[in-house]
Structure formats: structure tokens, C-alpha cells
């Protein structure tokens, strides 16, 4: 394949994982559709955690571990494993801290009447004394299903970004830099908008909603895209070429943490200079 036609990484281990995680996308949509259609989004603590863990762990971790057991690449060096590690670390930070910004700036609300296990920041976001009563607490299961969501977004985005980037290789150096910035920004805006449009449905409306959905789709997508402006290029670099050293677990952890910190700073700047969108 010529460079200009390449969708997948030149690193065969990463290319295999990208193709594999693309197969997760229809499974992910079916799983979410069943959960919403059966009204399973609000259940007790045990089943809340189990069903959200089931969205991510069996297909994204156990299955590639089994399929790649004879690949010649140890599991702890494999892209599929570091990608999952990156996603879990990134999701942990952005769920613990950034969801508070979603509550305060974007009008996000979670309602899980039968859930009692919550975990989020105490000094960031809404007043803790009234957060539960105003549906501004984060259930533990959100850390698990968000990892599955972000596996989908980052896999599809990186594959698409690479394809478009390879189409710009004939440009001058400054042109390639500008094109890359545009590719990242457009990809980030699309996936931020797409989650809201696809997930905030009538079936889920009693459990998760925005105070002003129209404002969220327009201005909220801009804020949400700040996650991906930081994380998409980072995941793109993860074991992208065979010539560079493979990322270690520690580098994967630090890169995910740095992306989360950068996006949190961008969120906070919006809070300083723009404020709530609803």
C-alpha cells in the first residue's frame, strides 16, 4: 500500500489492534441499545457496576488477550494492552475531575435512584452538600462504561486522522502542520458532538440529560472537544512506528495524565472567560 492510502499504523501490532477495536464499534452500539431499551441504566450498585464493566472488559481486554496470545508480542508490550491502560487512566482523571465541569458549565445531570456508590471530586464543581439532590454525582459505573466509549472514539478518530494526514504529505512543512491541527480539531469536534447526539436519547432521558440539549450540541461540543484535542494526538503517537521505542507502562500512564491535565486547564479557561452555556 502506498503511504497516501494507508488507514492503519505502519506498526503491525498497532494495526492489528486498530482493526480489532473497529469491530468493537457495532458491539458497543448494540450493547448500549439493549441497556437503554431494557431500562437497565438505573439499577442497584452491583448490577450497575457489572453491566458497565461488561461493556468494556470482555471484548476490549479479555478477547484481544486471547486472540494475540501467540502473536510473538508479549501482552504487556502489546498496543491493545497499553491502549486500554491509556484509556482507563485518562477516563479516570476526566471522570473524577472533569465531570464536575460538565455539571457546572454544561448542565449535565445523572440520576440513578438505586445507586449509592459515588466517586468524584469534592472541591471541584457543585457544592457537595446538595450535589446528590441536584443529580450532580458520579456513580462508579461511569468510570467503566466511559472507558468503552473512549475506546470507540479514539480508535475511529485515529484511523480517520491517519488517513487524512497521509493525504497531506505532499504539502510543505508549514502546510502539513496546519493540516494536522485542522485534522485534530475537526475530529475532536465531531466526536464531542456525536456522543451527545447519539447517546442523549429519549430512552436514556430519565437517567442522563442536559439542562439545555441544543446549547450542549453547539457550544457544549466545543468544550467537550477539549478532551480530544489533547488526547487524540497522544493516542496517535502511542507505538505508531516501529523505529521509535515502544511506550512503557509508565510513559502510557504519564501521557494519559498529561492529556487529562491539559484538557482540564482548557475547561477551566472556559469557566473563567465564558461560563455556563445554559
Which structural traits does this protein have?
278 residues, two-stranded antiparallel sheet, disordered N terminus
Can you walk me through this structure?
By secondary structure, this protein is mostly helical. It has one domain. Helix content is 65%, strand content 2%. The protein has seven helices and two strands. It has a two-stranded antiparallel ribbon.
**Main sheet attributes: strand count, strand direction, barrel closure:** 2 strands, antiparallel
Assembly type of the chains comes to single chain
Q: What is the residue-mean pLDDT, rounded to a whole number?
A: 93
Class derived from helix and strand content: mainly alpha
**Order of strands, widest sheet:** 1-2
What is the structure about, briefly put?
With 278 residues, the protein is mainly alpha-helical. It is built from seven helices and two strands; from the N terminus they run αααβααβαα. It has one domain (9-273).
Give the SSE map.
Elements: H1 12-37, H2 45-67, H3 79-106, E1 108-110, H4 141-166, H5 173-199, E2 208-210, H6 213-237, H7 249-273
Antiparallel strand pairs: 1-2
Helix pairs in contact: 1-2, 1-4, 2-4, 3-4, 3-6, 3-7, 4-5, 4-6, 5-6, 6-7
Amino acid at each position: 500500500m502506498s503511504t497516501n492510502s494507508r488507514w492503519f499504523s505502519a506498526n503491525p501490532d498497532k494495526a492489528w489492534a486498530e482493526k480489532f477495536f473497529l469491530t468493537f464499534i457495532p458491539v458497543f452500539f448494540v450493547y448500549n441499545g439493549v441497556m437503554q431499551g431494557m431500562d437497565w441504566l438505573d439499577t442497584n450498585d452491583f448490577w450497575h457496576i457489572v453491566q458497565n464493566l461488561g461493556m468494556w472488559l470482555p471484548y476490549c481486554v479479555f478477547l484481544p488477550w486471547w486472540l494475540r496470545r501467540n502473536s510473538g508480542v508479549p501482552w504487556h508490550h502489546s498496543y491493545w494492552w497499553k491502549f486500554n491502560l491509556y484509556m482507563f487512566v485518562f477516563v479516570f482523571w476526566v471522570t473524577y475531575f472533569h465531570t464536575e465541569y460538565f455539571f457546572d458549565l454544561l448542565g449535565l445531570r445523572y440520576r440513578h435512584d438505586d445507586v449509592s456508590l459515588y466517586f468524584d471530586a469534592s472541591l471541584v464543581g457543585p457544592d457537595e452538600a446538595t450535589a446528590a439532590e441536584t443529580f450532580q454525582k458520579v456513580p462508579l459505573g461511569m468510570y467503566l462504561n466511559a472507558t468503552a466509549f473512549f475506546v470507540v472514539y479514539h480508535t475511529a478518530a485515529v484511523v480517520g486522522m491517519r488517513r487524512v494526514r497521509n493525504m497531506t504529505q505532499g504539502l510543505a512543512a508549514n502546510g502539513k502542520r496546519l493540516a494536522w491541527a485542522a485534522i485534530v480539531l475537526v475530529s475532536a469536534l465531531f466526536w464531542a458532538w456525536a456522543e451527545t447526539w447519539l447517546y442523549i436519547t429519549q430512552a436514556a432521558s430519565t437517567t442522563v440529560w442536559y439542562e439545555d440539549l441544543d446549547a450542549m450540541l453547539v457550544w457544549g461540543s466545543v468544550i467537550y472537544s477539549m478532551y480530544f484535542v489533547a488526547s487524540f494526538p497522544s493516542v496517535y503517537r502511542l507505538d505508531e512506528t516501529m523505529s521509535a521505542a515502544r511506550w512503557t507502562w509508565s510513559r502510557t500512564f504519564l501521557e494519559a495524565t498529561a492529556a487529562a491535565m491539559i484538557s482540564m486547564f482548557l475547561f477551566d479557561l472556559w469557566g473563567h472567560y465564558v461560563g455556563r452555556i445554559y
